[in-house]
Amino acid sequence: MRLSKTFVPTLKEIPNDAVVPSHILMLRTGMVRMLSAGIYSFLPLGYRVIKKVCEIVRQEMDAIGGQEFHLPALNPKEIWEETGRVEAFGDILFHVKNRDYVLAPTHEEIMTFHARNVVKSYKDMPQIWYQIQTKFRNEPRPRSGVIRGRQFLMKDSYSFDVSWEDLDKSYMLHDEAYRRIFTRCGLKFFVVGASSGAMGGTGSEEFMVKSEAGEDTVAYCESCGYAANVEVATSKVSSPERETESKQVYEIHTPNVKSIDELCEFLKIDESVCAKSRIYISNNQPILVLMQGNDEVNETKLEKAVGSTIRPAHPDELKEITGADAGSIGPIGFNGRIISDLRLKDRNNLFSGANKNDYHIGGIDFQRDVKNIDYADLRVVQSGEGCPKCDSKLEVFPAIELGHIFKLGTKYSESMKAYFLDENGKENPIIMGSYGIGIERVVACYIEQNHDTKGIVWNKALAPFHIHLISINPKNEKVKNVSDEIYDSLTKSGFEVLYDDRDASPGFKFNDADLLGMPIQVIVGEKKLKDNLVECKIRKSDERFDVELNNLHSKLKELLDSLE
RNA sequence: CGGGGCGUAGCUCAGCCCGGUUAGAGCGCCUGGUUCGGGACCAGGAGGUCGGAGGUUCAAAUCCUCUCGCCCCGACCA
């Protein structure tokens, strides 16, 4: 395509509303423009990238036997009421005002609708149905450009099987296909197993990419691949052993000492001998939670340990429950349920609050002084702690969810009555799986991982064009003619060429080329042309070298083959 | 939904606190000329209901009220 005739509105300055690199660069390169919060138009260059991702997804989905559908975004509300998801989605679901339709936020119901009464025999399965379609979700807070939008492209597929064993197969096929898709796209990703067992034997995996723009926090071990959402992640940490001799409990006057750090400073002790107190409320009953030192309470783990939902107590409740304010609360004299992190299990000679403002207590022995104490892993893991699976260290960082594969089981087939007859003529619900990939997120994550100060660095797989041809001074007739010839012949030979034939200064064109980031730049200038040479530049490595005109095709082919 | 920030030319922003000729700059855009290997130069030019509505005032981009939009943090996230 000729840049002089193509709509690629590049921006020299950073748009005011963009913060994360992918968002900034997608705007600056003219890939996208915002229409409204969380709603983006893809411009020609951006849409080319989207189509490349879709094609990779399509190839890999087809390779595992997937069949592509195209489903409506406009859905009758009553189908969504069959599974109770109108209520489950709540405000996230867009409702159409003048008819009883909703805008589909995903398509389990619609796929199940097509399967029921049609996929009636065990002989009809397995099936894998997929589509690449726009989804609508009324996100309360769209952010980070295309990463969290109210309207987005999703590849979603659904498997239909006769048994749990067969579901495992469909699930594994997706797992492998997803790894191939993200690898082909050039993404550094990892897989988080999020199996909770909450739905009876179901499992799920999230495909994640490390990113500052991420909305999930994960713990990851580079050496063994252990990865877990920080809500459930565990780690190996050491703590002091129980000391052989327990001191007596004694009260200490600690004026204005509130935090663990202040307490350690005041008493010249280590934080590992401190039991930090937090009060939570569950079913209107207070629970005292004890953590070692500055360890943070992981509320997800706490809920699991307690067995019901919890919330932190309000400041005024603290006084009422314990007689003290935050900073002076402790287990001695506390009337109610006490649960402690495993790090403090059976410890003695600990320091904690006295349930009296400005006082702490030392010499606490959990075995002797704290009756009915429960123990559980309640910590939020932190970077640098030991991996639970190997001897390496964990890293904790934010990440973006690119894809999710999920064993649905019979939730939808049962509620929507999608039954089949097995070999014995017995009726059973279809066993389903559901698998999604955020297409725009793939693009945004690629940019997050592959950019420098000048702009995007595309790989061969996703680049909107492979070659960026630049003519320096197209007013020079020879330069113009040779550039035109190169463009025509390369295009005819099947190369994907973006041709900057604009009448602009060289620096302007070079900077635009680096910003747009095609893998190879071919630069046609007057000086080198005298020797029948043009310059090639590899965007990623900044390598440059001269190529003879009549060798250009073979050299470019060679370069493209060698590039990722 | 809570907290914070912002809305002035296509883009980035100044002016607002302390009201007062014709609302500015840089970049971009248009015309002509020069230039052409890392965001060129000269000359001329177009472009604004200062997000919107109401109010205070002799006078509002500026002060007040309401409203809409966008960004960030939090809550939420099948």
How would you describe this structure to a colleague?
This protein has 564 residues and is of the alpha+beta class. Strands 3, 7, 8, 9, 10, 11, 12, 21 and 24 form a nine-stranded mixed sheet that branches. It has a five-stranded mixed sheet with strand order 16-14-15-17-20, with helices on one face. Helix 2 crosses helix 12. The protein is globular, with a radius of gyration of 30 Å. The structure holds one RNA strand of 78 nucleotides.
| Percentage beta strand | 25-35%
The helix-and-strand class reads alpha+beta
Summarize model confidence as the mean pLDDT.
93
* Count of discrete structural domains: 3
Query: Helix amount, in percent?
Result: 25-40%
Number of strands: 29
Structure in a nutshell:
The chain has 564 residues and is an alpha+beta fold. It has 16 helices and 29 strands. The strands form seven sheets. Strands 3, 7, 8, 9, 10, 11, 12, 21 and 24 form a nine-stranded mixed beta sheet that branches. A five-stranded mixed beta sheet has the order 16-14-15-17-20, with helices on one face.
Element layout with pairings:
Elements: H1 21-28, E1 32-36, E2 39-42, H2 44-63, E3 66-69, E4 74-76, H3 77-82, H4 85-89, E5 94-95, E6 101-103, H5 108-115, E7 127-136, E8 151-161, H6 164-184, E9 190-193, E10 204-210, E11 216-220, E12 227-229, E13 250-253, H7 260-267, E14 275-282, E15 285-292, H8 299-306, E16 311-312, H9 315-322, E17 337-341, E18 350-353, E19 359-364, H10 366-369, E20 373-376, E21 395-409, H11 411-415, E22 419-421, E23 427-429, E24 431-438, H12 439-449, E25 467-471, H13 477-492, E26 497-500, H14 506-516, E27 520-524, H15 526-529, E28 533-538, E29 544-548, H16 552-562
Parallel strand pairs: 3-7, 15-17, 17-20, 25-26, 25-27
Antiparallel strand pairs: 1-2, 4-6, 5-6, 7-8, 8-24, 9-10, 10-21, 11-12, 11-21, 13-19, 14-15, 14-16, 18-19, 21-24, 22-23, 27-28, 28-29
Helix pairs in contact: 1-12, 2-6, 2-12
The protein binds one RNA strand of 78 nucleotides through helix 4, helix 14 and helix 15.
